[in-house]
Write a sequence for this structure.
C-alpha cells in the first residue's frame, strides 16, 4: 500500500525529508565517532559491528537483484586470511596495504566464483555460494601447516603510514578507518544503485527476458553486483581480522554467512544504512543479552526478526524512515 | 544488389507433435512494413522467437543484412539492430515507465559511470519524447505495476524504440490498447518509424490497422506462410476471408 502511494507521487519527495535524512545521518555518524571518548568500553564492540556492517552491505547488494547468498563469509575470510598471510610475509606491513590487498583478494575470489554462480538463480544461487564457502572452510581447517587449522593464524598489528602505533592509538585509528569505510563505501554503493550499471543489475530481480532483449547479458549484469558484494565483504573481513588480531576458519563458516543475511533482513532488505543499523543492533543484543543469561540472545533476536518480517518487512530502516516521514509531514503542516 | 534486411530460409521447429514452424522462408525488405496475420496458434510468435534467437530452429537459417544470425543469442541479435516488443509486455515492473526507457538507453549506449544517477543522463529528454509519442508521458513516473495493460504494451514498444533498431518486431502492438487510441498510436508510430528509417514487422489481428499501416501482409497458417502480398491483395483473398478474418471477427 505504502509502496504504491509513494511511487505514484511523481518525483516529489516530501519536502524536508532529504534534509532530515542528512541530519539523521550526520547525527548518527557523530554519535558513532564519539564512542571512543564517551563510551570507550564499547569501542571494540562497535568496531566489530562496523566490520560486519560492511560485509552485510555486500549481502544487501545481492538482495537488490533478488538473490540471496548463503556463502558470503567466504569473501570475508579470504580477505582476512589474505591480510594475515601478508603480515606473515611482510612483517610491519601497512594497514592500508593490508586493506587494499585483502579487498583485492576477495574481489578476485568473487570473480572466480562469480563467473560460475551467476548462471544460477534463487535457491541454487544461494546453495552454490554456500558450497564454495564450505569448501574454503574445510581447506582452512585441514591444511593447518599453512593455515594454522582450527586455531587460525595471528594477524599482528600493522603499521599505519609507516608508524608503529601503540595499542590504544592503533585501535583508535582502526575505529575511524572503519567509519571512513562505512561512509566511503556506503556512499559509493548508494550511488552505484542509482547508476546505469547498478540499475541494469537490479533488473535481474524483475525481468531477465527484457534485459537480454536490451542487448545485455544478464549473467554479466549479475556479475557486476557480485563483484561489488565480494569487495564489500572483503573490506569487512580485513577490519574484523585486524581488530581481533587473529583469523580463524570460523570466519568462513556458514553460520557467519547466515548471520549476514539475518542482519541484512533485520536492518532492511536492500538498504545500505539498514546494514549498519542491523549490525549494531545485532552485536549489542548478542553481547548484552548473553551477559544477562546464556542463549537468551538467540531468542531475543529470533523474536525480533519475526516481528520485523511480520510487521515491518522493510526492516529497521523502514521503521526509521516512516518515523522520519511523519516528522517531516507534521513540520510541513505547521 | 543489397541483401534483404531479414531473410529466413526453411525454418523448422516442433513442440512435441505441433509443428510451429514448417519450412518458413520469408524475406523482409528494408522500408517495407510487414503485417503478420493468422489464427491463434499459427506460429506467429514462434516466428519472432526464432528470428530473435530466443528459440533455435531444428532446421533452417535466419539472416540479418545478409549475415547468418541463427546461432546468436538474443542480446547479440539485438545489438546488431533488431528490437522486439512482446505480446505480453516484458518490462521492469518495480521501475517507473521512464526508468524502463532510461535503462534501455543505458544498455544501448553501454553507460559505465558507476556513480552517475541514471536520471541525470542527457538522453532523458529523448526518452521523455518517446513516452510522449506513445501517449504515456503522463504516467512517466508511475511504476509499471500501476499502468494499464494498454499502457504497458505502449511502454514496451517505446523501450524497443529506445534501442534505435533498424528492424522492430512487434507482437500484437495494439492489443489491450483502447480502440479509440489504436489508430492514433499506429499513425504516430508508423510516422516515427519512417522518419527514423526503422522497418517494422507486426503481428496484428485488427484488419483495419493492417489495411491502413502495412505495406505488405503475410498470412500465417499451421506454421507456415500461406500467402503474401499487399493488403489489398491479401485481405480480398477468399482463403484469408475464410480462415483468418472469419475467425477473428
Ligand atoms: N515454447 C513452447 N513450447 C511448447 N509449445 C509451444 C511453445 N511456443 C509455442 N508453442 C506452440 O506452438 C504453436 C504456435 O504458437 P505461437 O507461435 O504462440 O502462435 P501464435 O503466436 O500464432 O498464436 C502453438 O500450438 C503453441 O502451443
Ligand atoms: Mg502469439
Amino acid at each position: 500500500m505504502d509502496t504504491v502511494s509513494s511511487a505514484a507521487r511523481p518525483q516529489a519527495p516530501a519536502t524536508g525529508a532529504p534534509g532530515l535524512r542528512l541530519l539523521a545521518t550526520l547525527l548518527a555518524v557523530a554519535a558513532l565517532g564519539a564512542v571512543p571518548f564517551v563510551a570507550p568500553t564499547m569501542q571494540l564492540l562497535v568496531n566489530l559491528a562496523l566490520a560486519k556492517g560492511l560485509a552485510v552491505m555486500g549481502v544487501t547488494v545481492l538482495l537488490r537483484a533478488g538473490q540471496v547468498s548463503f556463502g558470503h563469509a567466504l569473501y570475508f575470510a579470504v580477505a582476512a586470511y589474505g591480510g594475515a598471510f601478508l603480515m606473515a610475509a611482510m612483517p610491519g606491513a601497512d594497514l592500508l596495504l593490508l586493506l587494499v590487498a585483502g579487498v583485492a583478494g576477495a574481489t578476485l575470489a568473487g570473480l572466480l566464483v562469480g563467473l560460475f554462480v551467476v548462471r544460477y538463480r534463487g535457491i541454487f544461487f544461494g546453495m552454490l555460494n554456500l558450497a564454495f564457502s564450505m569448501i574454503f572452510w574445510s581447506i582452512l581447517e585441514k591444511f593447518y601447516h599453512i593455515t594454522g587449522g582450527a586455531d587460525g593464524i595471528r594477524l599482528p598489528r600493522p603499521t599505519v603510514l609507516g608508524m608503529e602505533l601503540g595499542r590504544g592509538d592503533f585501535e583508535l585509528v582502526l575505529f575511524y578507518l572503519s567509519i571512513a569505510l562505512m561512509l566511503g563505501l556506503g556512499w559509493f554503493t548508494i550511488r552505484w544503485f542509482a547508476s546505469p550499471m547498478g540499475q541494469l543489475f537490479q533488473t535481474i530481480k524483475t525481468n531477465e527476458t527484457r534485459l537480454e532483449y536490451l542487448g545485455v547479458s544478464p549473467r554479466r549484469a549479475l556479475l557486476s553486483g557480485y563483484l561489488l558484494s565480494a569487495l564489500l565483504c572483503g573490506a569487512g573481513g580485513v577490519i574484523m581480522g585486524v581488530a581481533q588480531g587473529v583469523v580463524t576458519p570460523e570466519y568462513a563458516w556458514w553460520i557467519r554467512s547466515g548471520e549476514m543475511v539475518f542482519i541484512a533482513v533485520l536492518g532492511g532488505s536492500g538498504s545500505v544504512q539498514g546494514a549498519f543499523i542491523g549490525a549494531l543492533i545485532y552485536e549489542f543484543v548478542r553481547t548484552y543479552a548473553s551477559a544477562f543469561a546464556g542463549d537468551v540472545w538467540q531468542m531475543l533476536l529470533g523474536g525480533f526478526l519475526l516481528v520485523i518480517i511480520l510487521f515491518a518487512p522493510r526492516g529497521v530502516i523502514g521503521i526509521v524512515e516512516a518515523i522520519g516521514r511523519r516528522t517531516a509531514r507534521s513540520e510541513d503542516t505547521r | 544488389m543489397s541483401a534483404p534486411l531479414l531473410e529466413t530460409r526453411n525454418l523448422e521447429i516442433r513442440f512435441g507433435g505441433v509443428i510451429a514452424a514448417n519450412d518458413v522462408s520469408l524475406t523482409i525488405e528494408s522500408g517495407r512494413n510487414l503485417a503478420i496475420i493468422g489464427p491463434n496458434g499459427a506460429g506467429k510468435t514462434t516466428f519472432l522467437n526464432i528470428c530473435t534467437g530466443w528459440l533455435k530452429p531444428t532446421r533452417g537459417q535466419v539472416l540479418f543484412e545478409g549475415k547468418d544470425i541463427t546461432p546468436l543469442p538474443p542480446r547479440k541479435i539485438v545489438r546488431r539492430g533488431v528490437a522486439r516488443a512482446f505480446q505480453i509486455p516484458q518490462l521492469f515492473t518495480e521501475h517507473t515507465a521512464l526508468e524502463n526507457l532510461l535503462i534501455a538507453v543505458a544498455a544501448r549506449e553501454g553507460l559505465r559511470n558507476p556513480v552517475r544517477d541514471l536520471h541525470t543522463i542527457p538522453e532523458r529528454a529523448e526518452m521523455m519524447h518517446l513516452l510522449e509519442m506513445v501517449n504515456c508521458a503522463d504516467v512517466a513516473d508511475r511504476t509499471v505495476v500501476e499502468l494499464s495493460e494498454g499502457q504497458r504494451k505502449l511502454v514496451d514498444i517505446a523501450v524497443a524504440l529506445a534501442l534505435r533498431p533498424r528492424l522492430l518486431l512487434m507482437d500484437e502492438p495494439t492489443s489491450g490498447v483502447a480502440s479509440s487510441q489504436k489508430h492514433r498510436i499506429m499513425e504516430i508510430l508508423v510516422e516515427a518509424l519512417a522518419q527514423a528509417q526503422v522497418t517494422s514487422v507486426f503481428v496484428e489481428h485488427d484488419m483495419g490497422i493492417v489495411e491502413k499501416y502495412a505495406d505488405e501482409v503475410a498470412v500465417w497458417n499451421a506454421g507456415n506462410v500461406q500467402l503474401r502480398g499487399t493488403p489489398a491483395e491479401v485481405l480480398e483473398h477468399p482463403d484469408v476471408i475464410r480462415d483468418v478474418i472469419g475467425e477473428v471477427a
